[in-house]
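Good morning,

Attaching, inline, the backbone tokens for the sequence recovery test we're adding to the shared suite. The designed sequence is right after.
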């Protein structure tokens, strides 16, 4: 796909600010002539994540072709353009996609955005359509109608959840933490919302993930997700083997509770790396810039999917906390509301040490093992460019450290 021009980038930024989840494709002379284009990886991932279609489960040939209702949005028209999704008998069944009548309303090298309502697909030519102008127009038009519908659906649940937090703030009411542990406030927050702590992959509240953070702890990191290694393809097959070789004694038990990051081995000589192929993330043993051991690995696509599904929409809840008579109490301060993480920057943030891996293996406390990926506060705007701030406490002072470069070098 060619590079986007400034007009197209402005269109994509407008869609992102509306909270529209979309994917893109480019038209070519060959695709317009043949009547199909390849459903490349981002399109396949978008269809799968949005529950529209799974090419990997589709058989080859015309008999297995599937259709979805589709419409092409122009400045003044909504043109029926049925989508056909199929895998041909030839070329190993490379996934293909086509919209009927598309060739009549586009030129080669045009860029399109594709989004959906339910199973109905909508496409819009971002090379030729000024989306912001159409959306903000006083006249009714299909672009405004469809985007308004999607935006309203996206915002209804978040506004509902925000209303609950506003009510819970209750002029700075102090609530007791459920348990004296790192998860105590998170558990209390979910209980107050009528939710049970359950690591639900679909989010804590109707699809919205909720993450809590104590401001008084001065933590510079936010937890993204936990993910165990791909043991099948790793050299070490069990966490016990790793703890035995790299662990240390604490409270009479061998454990391994350390931070691992890229380019800077820790005291145990553990370091993260993404090989030049850009397919896997490895945890290595390295000394004096020499790799001594390949320990475990993760498929980057697996981590990308985990990040995308976990934080499709998230409320990052910051609270003040104090201790009274040995018990912890907290009150709400502010919320950062993020959507649609910028997956393309995740790998770069790892290599720039803004995303780290926190190991908690064989803890003396007996708590479960975790492989936790965390992001430093000041890199949040890079991974989550779509962000809104809600101040529950009017006197709160949201802050984070100075931002890293907006374009991180690989």
């Amino acid at each position: 796909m060619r590079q986007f021009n400034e007009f197209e980038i402005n269109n994509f930024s407008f869609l992102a600010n509306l909270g529209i989840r979309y994917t893109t494709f480019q038209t070519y002379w060959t695709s317009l002539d043949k009547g199909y284009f390849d459903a490349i990886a981002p399109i396949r991932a978008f269809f799968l994540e949005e529950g529209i279609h799974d090419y990997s489960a589709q058989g080859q040939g015309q008999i297995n072709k599937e259709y979805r209702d589709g419409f092409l949005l122009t400045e003044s028209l909504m043109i029926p353009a049925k989508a056909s999704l199929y895998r041909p008998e030839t070329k190993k069944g490379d996934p293909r996609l086509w919209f009927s009548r598309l060739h009549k309303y586009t030129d080669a090298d045009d860029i399109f955005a594709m989004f959906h309502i339910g199973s109905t697909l909508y496409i819009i030519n971002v090379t030729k359509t000024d989306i912001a102008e159409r959306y903000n127009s006083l006249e009714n038009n299909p672009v405004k109608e469809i985007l308004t519908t999607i935006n309203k659906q996206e915002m209804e649940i978040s506004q509902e959840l925000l209303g609950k937090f506003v009510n819970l703030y209750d002029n700075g009411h102090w609530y007791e933490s459920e348990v004296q542990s790192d998860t105590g406030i998170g558990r209390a927050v979910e209980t107050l919302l009528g939710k049970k702590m359950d690591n639900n992959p679909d989010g804590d509240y109707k699809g919205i993930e909720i993450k809590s953070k104590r401001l008084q702890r001065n933590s510079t990191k936010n937890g993204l997700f936990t993910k165990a290694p791909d043991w099948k393809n790793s050299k070490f097959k069990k966490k016990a083997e790793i703890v035995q070789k790299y662990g240390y004694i604490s409270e009479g038990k061998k454990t391994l509770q350390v931070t691992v990051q890229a380019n800077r081995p820790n005291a145990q000589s553990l370091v993260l790396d993404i090989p030049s192929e850009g397919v896997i993330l490895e945890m290595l043993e390295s000394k004096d810039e020499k790799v001594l051991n390949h320990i475990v690995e993760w498929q980057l696509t697996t981590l990308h999917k985990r990040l995308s599904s976990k934080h499709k929409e998230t409320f990052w809840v910051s609270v003040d906390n104090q201790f009274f008579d040995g018990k912890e109490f907290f009150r709400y301060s502010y919320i950062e509301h993020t959507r649609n993480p910028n997956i393309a920057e995740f790998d770069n943030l790892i290599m720039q040490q803004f995303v780290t891996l926190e190991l908690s293996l064989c803890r003396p406390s007996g708590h479960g093992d975790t492989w936790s990926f965390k992001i430093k506060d000041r890199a949040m705007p890079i991974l989550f460019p779509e962000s809104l701030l809600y101040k529950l406490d009017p006197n709160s002072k949201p802050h984070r450290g100075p931002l890293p470069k907006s374009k991180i070098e690989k």
